[in-house]
Amino acid sequence: MIQTAKIQIATLLNPLTQLAAPDLQKVLERPKQFEHGHLAFPVFALAKNLKKAPPQISNELAIKIEELIKVGAVPYLEKVEAAGGFLNFTFKNSYLQDVFFLAVSKENIGYSNLGENKTVVIDYASPNVAKPMHVGHLRAAMVGQAIRNLAASQGYNVIGVNHLGDWGSQFGKLAWAYQEWGSEYDFTVKPIDSLLKLYVRFHDEAEKNPEIEHLGAATFKKLEDGDLEIRKIWQKIVEDSLKDYDRLLNGLLKIKHDAILGESFYTDKMESAVSLLKEKNLLKESEGAQVVFFDEKENMPPCIIKKSDGASIYATRDLATAIYRHDVMKADELLYVVGQDQSLHFKQVFRVLELAGFEWANTCHHISFGLYRFEEGKMSTRKGRVILFEDVITDAIALVEKMITEKNPNLENRELVAKQVAIGAVIFNDLVNDRVKNVLFDWDRILNMEGDSGPYVQYTTVRCKSILRKYGKPAPTKASIELSSEEERKLLFQLLQFEDILAGAYKQYRPNILAQYLLEVCGSFSHFYHKCRILGESSEVESSRIAL
RNA sequence: GCGCCGGUAGCUCAGCUGGAUAGAGUACUAGACUACGAAUCUAGUGGUCGGAGGUUCGACUCCUUCCCGGCGCACCA
Strands A303-306 and A289-292: what pairing? Predict the structure, then answer.
């Protein structure tokens, strides 16, 4: 795509500037204004060595290249212009068109093989068993899935894991409550609702009768010790919860995992990690707990590996998990799509891995994202300030259905369209902004259907497809004439950036780069669509525009 | 107190890792449906890029410092 053109310019400039072609490729940039051309070379870097003013350098280069254009040595160039310290290149339409139609004739347009033969393990959307997912999980799920898709576009072998929160003392309480009152609840429709009720009831009862706290704890001990009956109940709770998550994640949002390996999976893998730390002499006793201290310069509290009662903790499990992902899953890159409130935890875990001598520790990355917030403060289950994942989706669908009734009462497949548009809006709204920023939860914003939104992208796509449908023939794979109007050239040039955009979005783990690009492409398409008639033009113009 | 992240138009946000005159959407104003479907498009109004220093040819972008907001700071996850 645009790389092809960059290589051309780099090889052209190489003998004229004494700079290496790869370095030139790196500094060549897209001018901010379309009128400035397709590629710009900032000559400032040459100024020091040549001891000349940048405008003089660019002028001299422009003159030399103009000569080459005149004698036909650079048939791909339309013109070159010096503008201050910039050298602006404009390609011939025909050349860009050739590059473009060649690129899109291949499979998987815009994909690269940067990640070939490499495996990336991505941890995202890991819910806690028996608890409903809230908008925070929604965010983690969408960002994770987007990064997963981006990784796939770069040729990586991707393993998306659901690191299910399925272990801990709360499961003793739940299992006990299930034994005691389970028969009073329905677990067939929305099992998580019933599980949550059980959990709440346990706590209510525990306030009146503290005795049952101990019963809960004792039940967890039984679970850990492998009591078959309790284990069976635990398994059912996990399976029921998974059904609900699958309905929401995969069923509604097409968010998929390749592996479901919950915390319970690592219970027997922690000891080897702990003994390794012991061998390396990293483990110290402090206040009864086993911890790893960090260098003073790191300015981090110690990482607790074993609590004073000997039990494992969050960090212990994450160490075992990371080692497993690297050793068994053969991960070359380990990504954790988790909220920014856990930055310190991951910093500690990654550092402990490094101290333990795992040179691959630097392939671990915490892909943090900002949190949903309310005007009144942090989202909190206890204060009742929590918006459920499912409510966001169902409310969005209801709203879109209402809009369809107003705008397009005769639409046949109203329910399907409402679902597609609503979910598109929710997903796009979340991915369009930089993931590190906190988001103020606002229904109006999340359900925005106009302007820069998911539905705008969908709308544009649908306009496009509608034309192709009405064209009635298979679309030609390349334009037969030169696409010369400004709108056509802009759109084509925009599309040429796709490959770079995908690669950059993955490299920085930022889906919003792609989302912003899509908005720009849609804008360019809209201009083209309103300015250039397609169907019913002369057959050459028609087929060329169809190809575009 | 210490650490991490943010502060760009009235509002919500981009700004492609240091480049040219800081851009969108929204809101507001004025226009375009007998038109490839108007959830669209065209034009206009709107900025001391939190403040102050610094680095250099060049800073929204990097450094220092201060202010404001969010999050975190050993036995929850």
Answer: antiparallel
